[in-house]
Design brief:
Length: 201
């Protein structure tokens, strides 16, 4: 995980103080959830900081329902009361850690550099929308590291490959370079010859 742009979700979870994190996790595994959503396993919540927790929330619940889950938990552990959102924000200032996190070390360098004007994904947008056929396989590779469940299901719901690709590209402006690199790697895995052809142009 690491490509989500959770916005409000990220900000609020990042505000939690160290002593509040265990209470938040304990509430998270017991509050009622809407039908169709799985509870985050206790084993996944045992370790990690607030940013790791944020990624899990977005992965399991998406950004929109994830917001409601966070509000419910904050009320359950009495950190937030109805109409007291501003008081919560004043007592829990933003953390300084950047988001999304920096790309992991050790990944192979992509075939573009800082001197080039655009990423492969951006530069070949129209060709990829028109010619990629293994969209479902690419979505499976992106689900988790790049796409949350809500985004994944939304793109897969489109009827044709071109419609799925256009829907996927609606998300691209919010991605960092690491997300685009993972999309590129998924394309290379499923459409190596097409990627090599476009790189040769």
């Amino acid at each position: 995980m690491g490509c989500f742009t959770g916005g409000w979700v990220t900000e609020q979870v990042g505000r939690l103080k160290k002593m509040e994190l265990p209470r938040f996790k304990n509430s998270l595994i017991r509050i009622p959830l809407k039908d169709g959503y799985e509870r985050i396993p206790r084993s996944k919540l045992r370790h990690g900081d607030s940013m790791d927790l944020c990624e899990l929330i977005i992965r399991y619940y998406g950004k929109h329902y994830g917001k409601k889950v966070i509000m419910d938990v904050l009320r359950d552990i009495r950190l937030l009361r109805a109409g007291k959102e501003q008081a919560w924000e004043r007592s829990h200032p933003r953390v300084g850690r950047s988001w999304p996190p920096a790309p992991p070390l050790g990944l192979p360098a992509p075939p573009w550099g800082a001197g080039k004007n655009s990423h492969f994904i951006d530069h070949h947008r129209e060709q990829l929308i028109q010619r990629v056929t293994a969209v479902d396989g690419i979505l499976d590779l992106l689900h988790g590291p790049v796409l949350d469940t809500e985004q994944y299901q939304s793109v897969r719901a489109e009827k044709t490959n071109q419609e799925k690709m256009r829907k996927l590209y609606e998300l691209v402006p919010s991605w960092n370079t690491d997300c685009k690199d993972q999309f590129y790697q998924a394309l290379k895995d499923k459409h190596r010859h097409l990627v090599e052809e476009l790189e040769g142009k």
